[in-house]
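Hi everyone, sorry if this is the wrong subforum. Our group has a chain we'd like a structural model of before ordering constructs, and none of us has done structure prediction before. Sequence below.
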Amino acid sequence: MNSYYTYLTVFCILAYLIITDQSIAKFIVLVGKLIEIRWARFYWWLKHNPANPIVAYQMKRRSMRLAEELMQELQDKK
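Answer:
Right subforum, don't worry. Here is the predicted structure as tokens:
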């Protein structure tokens, strides 16, 4: 129950500061955008990092499929 009071206190303090000073409101918005951008960057890194085994498997599978297609084209030309 104490955590609820702590969250409520922090929220009330932030609300008071936002109401009294517009620069703090801009700061809160910019911090929110910064968090959003950092999350997007981390998600992109996680999705495209070759050290990730899932990404490595997908890259290998894509490369093998392309190699098979190229081998098929070469055999068809003969």
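For your construct planning: The helical segments are 2-20, 22-48, 53-77. The chain has a mean pLDDT of 93.
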